[in-house]
Design a protein that fits this description.
This protein is mainly alpha-helical and about 120 residues long. It folds into two domains: about 70 residues; about 45 residues, no CATH class. It is built from three helices and no strands. The protein starts with 5 loop residues before the first helix and ends with a helix. Keywords: Coiled coil, Cytoplasm, DNA replication, DNA replication inhibitor, Metal-binding, Zinc.
């Protein structure tokens, strides 16, 4: 290795120090930008989840308005599909439907107009 005089050594050291300060400043700017991106990403993820939740609520509301059945009507539908009456015409509720024939009274209770 070549022997450097004191002045050249000092100049090289000063140049290296300046370069190090510039690198630190650049790293600080990159870190600041990265933190802004991470914060914005977190905000967007939260907003996105809220929008998904809202969309799901709207779809559920639309489903219930357009023929979607409530939990109790789904239970009645399940009983009906298993071959039982869910209407109370002539005290038929809970009795077996003959040959699984359709019952308009049961169907009206399950699928009829809702208030």
């Amino acid at each position: 290795m070549e022997h450097l005089d004191d002045r050249t050594l000092y100049d090289k050291f000063a140049e290296l120090e300046l370069h190090a300060h510039k690198s630190v400043a650049e790293l600080s700017e990159i870190q600041k930008s990265l933190m802004e991106v991470i914060e914005r990403n977190a905000e967007l993820e939260i907003e996105n989840q809220h929008l998904r939740d809202h969309l799901q609520e709207l779809e559920q509301h639309k489903s219930s308005e357009n023929g979607g059945l409530s939990k109790s009507r789904k239970n009645l539908e399940k009983l009906y599909e298993q071959g039982f009456h869910v209407c109370n015409v002539d005290n038929m509720y809970g009795t077996r439907r003959l040959n699984d024939e359709p019952c308009v009274f049961c169907q009206n209770i399950i699928y009829g107009e809702r208030k």
